[in-house]
């Protein structure tokens, strides 16, 4: 891509802004188009960068005159404009594809339905602990392209969603980590789990024998779809339930063993994040570290010192012996399953929001064992009531977050935990899961 191109960026969020900045830095002609209104911050950034843009509309004639179009991940394939672009046979790629074409560093890419943000943060922390020049990018916050526009790094810990993988062509991470596959976002994939899984597995599409693919061999759906998916990369397995030849396992004495080159052993009680799902996360980042030849001492130090990310099983406060835990990032049932599975105290569970066709049956056993009360927070809680009345001793509704937190506090006893783990999207009462989590924390602090 040496010649000056006429590049159009569709979408003016973090991803689109980063792509536009990188395209401009590379000397291309750039036009950003967003059908919605831009945030004041991004609008100002475009003005300051002297990047041509429009908002509130798509000027189709100008867009269809592009040499290359970079699409933000939130725009579905079935959108009429995207179909017109396909018909016109204009090259259409994702922001991570564009960024990767201009990346000089080593890419460690992480995807999966749950755990990808934690694993990405762990990989970043591990490489920082080892003294490496590493950027934390992608779906986690800072766009991959935007980071490259600001300057090169030796390593990129890159969180990628299925939406971002939909429009890759040559994207090729040196290390790819697939945490798991569970049903989510099926409305984007014609209600097809097969299509959703195929999108996740695209992370390994261009890998070759010099690259590495890390996955959880205990995850039934991952195993199912890998049977029909060709992998050329070297494979590394994670398991809590069986022995593996290459990867990471737990032995009978509760020792985490990373079996790569010289074996690394670490007592699971030393891990900073506890719980079954977090052990998988620690395994994944530890295996990635060993594949990058990070010293065993640095890996142990990083896994023992990692601090939980905001809104993911984040301990907020203890008030009169009641622990308040913010797991607002749990926007699907499987994430909430992991949260409930990790609870070691009688739990008052706050859940609810926009139901994405959730099947709550997989939570029934855990709710019966661990939940002393369920507080439903959303505009329509009928499915939660139907699923859990009779399993939890009490199922009640709250009008807003302040009321939910006050209710939980009044119900709680010393030694209990109050867990916000919604299992639903946040768009009925909140702007997003971050807004929901911050409202929870503010309400707790006001008790």
Structure description:
The chain has helices at residues 14-25, 40-48, 60-63, 80-88, 95-100, 116-129, 144-150, 162-165, 193-201, 220-226, 276-291, 296-305, 333-342, 364-370, 382-388, 401-411, 433-445; strands at 6-10, 29-34, 52-55, 68-71, 91-94, 106-111, 134-138, 155-159, 175-178, 212-216, 234-239, 247-250, 255-259, 264-267, 314-319, 322-326, 347-351, 371-377, 395-398, 417-420. The model has no long low-confidence stretch (mean pLDDT 91). The protein is an alpha/beta fold. It contains 17 helices and 20 strands. The strands form 3 sheets. A 9-stranded mixed sheet has the order 7-8-6-9-10-11-12-13-14, covered by helices on one side. A 6-stranded mixed sheet has the order 15-16-20-17-18-19, with helices on both faces. The chain folds into 3 domains: 6-89, Rossmann fold, CATH 3.40.50.720; 99-305, Mur-like, catalytic domain (UDP-N-acetylmuramoyl-L-alanine:D-glutamate ligase); 314-445, Mur ligase, C-terminal domain (Protein-Tyrosine Phosphatase, Chain A, Alpha-Beta Complex). This is UDP-N-acetylmuramoylalanine--D-glutamate ligase. Pfam families: Mur_ligase_C, Mur_ligase_M, MurD-like_N. Residues 311-424 form the Mur ligase C-terminal domain. Belongs to the MurCDEF family.
């Amino acid at each position: 891509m040496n010649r000056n191109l006429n590049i159009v960026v569709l979408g003016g969020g973090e991803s689109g802004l980063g792509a536009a900045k990188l395209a401009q830095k590379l000397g291309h002609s750039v036009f950003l188009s967003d059908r919605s209104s831009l945030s004041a911050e991004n609008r100002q950034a475009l003005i300051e960068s002297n990047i041509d843009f429009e908002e509130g509309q798509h000027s189709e004639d100008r867009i269809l005159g592009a040499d290359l179009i970079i699409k933000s991940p939130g725009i579905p394939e079935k959108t009429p404009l995207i179909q017109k672009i396909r018909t016109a046979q204009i090259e259409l790629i994702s922001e991570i594809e564009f960024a990767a074409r201009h990346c000089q560093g080593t890419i460690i890419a992480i995807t999966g339905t749950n755990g990808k943000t934690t694993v990405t943060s762990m990989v970043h922390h591990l490489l920082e602990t080892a003294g490496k020049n590493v950027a934390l990018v992608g779906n986690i916050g800072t766009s991959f392209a935007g980071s490259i526009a600001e300057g090169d790094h030796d390593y990129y810990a890159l969180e990628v969603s299925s939406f971002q993988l939909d429009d890759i062509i040559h994207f090729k991470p040196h290390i790819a980590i697939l945490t798991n596959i569970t049903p989510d976002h099926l409305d984007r994939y014609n209600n097809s789990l097969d299509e959703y899984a195929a999108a996740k597995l695209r992370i390994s599409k261009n890998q070759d024998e010099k690259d590495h693919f890390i996955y959880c061999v205990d995850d039934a759906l991952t195993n199912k779809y890998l049977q029909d998916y060709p992998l050329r990369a070297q494979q590394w397995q994670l398991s809590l339930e069986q022995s593996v030849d290459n990867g990471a396992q737990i032995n009978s004495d509760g020792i985490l063993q990373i079996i790569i080159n010289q074996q690394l052993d670490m007592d699971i009680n030393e891990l900073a994040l506890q719980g079954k799902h977090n052990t998988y996360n620690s395994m994944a980042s530890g295996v990635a570290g060993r594949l990058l030849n990070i010293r065993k001492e640095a890996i142990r130090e990083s896994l023992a010192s990692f601090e939980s990310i905001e809104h993911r099983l984040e301990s907020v406060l203890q008030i009169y012996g009641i622990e308040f835990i913010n797991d607002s990032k749990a926007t699907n049932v499987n994430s909430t399953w992991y949260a409930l599975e990790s609870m070691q105290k009688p739990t008052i569970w706050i859940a609810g929001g926009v139901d994405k066709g959730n099947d709550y049956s997989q939570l029934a056993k855990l709710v019966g064992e661990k939940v002393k009360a369920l507080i439903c927070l959303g505009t329509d809680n009928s499915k939660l009531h139907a699923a859990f009345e009779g399993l939890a001793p009490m199922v009640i509704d709250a009008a807003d977050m302040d009321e939910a937190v006050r209710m939980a506090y009044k119900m709680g006893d010393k030694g209990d935990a109050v867990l916000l783990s919604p299992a639903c999207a946040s768009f009925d009462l909140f702007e997003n899961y971050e807004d929901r989590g911050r409202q929870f924390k503010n309400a707790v602090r006001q008790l």
